[in-house]
Amino acid sequence: MPKKIIKPVVSAQEAVKCIKSGDSVMVGGFNYGGIPYTLTDALYDQGTDQLTLISNDTIYEFCGQGKLVAGGRCKKVIASHVGLNKTTGRLFHEGKMELELFPQGTYVEKIRAGGAGLGGFLTPTGVGTVVEEGKEVIEINGKKYILELPLTADVALVRAFRADRMGNLTYTGTNKNFNPTMATAAKIVIAEVDEVVNVGELNPDNIVTQGVLVDMLVLKGDSIYATRT
Question: Which domain of life is it from (predicted)?
């Protein structure tokens, strides 16, 4: 029988120590739903800056990844919607932060391509608009497509519902939004969960993210959880 690889359950502060200045960080969630708040708060408190934030949106200035933007911790944001966080637009227009926007379907497909090891994909979305500027446009059977390149990150902070000690993850409700896809596309994946159970306690049919993709587990709301091996 293959040896079971037990993943460490650590405090949020311990988990985010792997994130260094200049790193690219994916953060799951859509508006309020599915954001790993315990991890984003710990990263904010750590003070790490010059980050490239990859998230669907920058939510609001006072919570989640929005605090990282409002606190001047990000040198660049890659997203599909930033209208709820006025600081995002202001920093971009003042030349203090780079901003790259993609249609939402294109955004998540770029991450999916990165996680699958693909060289990119072709999409008709944005052809003939500002979206295609600086990108390769390919014509197939008389129809034009934009070549979109894959998107990966140094670290992904994802929000799941339950994990077992091998790092297998289940999701519920809006936690399913971008989190499972991001868990495939980063060098280091840290999952914030409600509960960690023993190996064998999860219904295999409910597992969405396999433990081989996950490096560390953090309990929701737990910022002082003792490291376990």
Answer: Bacteria
C-beta of residue 168 within 8 angstroms of C-beta of residue 207: yes
Asked if residues 156 and 28 have their Cβ atoms less than 8 Å apart, the reply is yes
Model confidence, pTM? 0.93
Tokens of 163: 């994990």
Task: At 148, give phi and psi (nearest 5°).
Answer: -100, 135
Of 193, 203, 208, the residue nearest 10 (C-alpha): 193
pLDDT tens, per residue, the chain with 229 residues: 556 789 999 999 999 999 999 999 999 999 999 999 999 999 999 999 999 999 999 999 999 999 999 999 999 999 999 989 999 999 999 999 999 999 999 999 999 999 999 999 999 999 999 999 999 999 999 999 999 999 999 999 999 999 999 999 999 988 889 999 999 999 999 999 999 999 999 999 999 999 999 999 999 986 543 333 2
In this structure, are residues 57 and 82 in contact, taking their beta carbons and an 8 Å threshold? yes
What the chain holds in terms of domains, given with CATH numbers, is 12-219 (3.40.1080.10)
> Residue 157: which of 68, 60, 97 has the closest Cα?
68
Under a CB-based contact definition with an 8 Å cutoff, are residues 40 and 157 in contact? Answer: yes
Q: What is the dihedral sign for C-alpha 16, 47, 63, 101?
A: negative
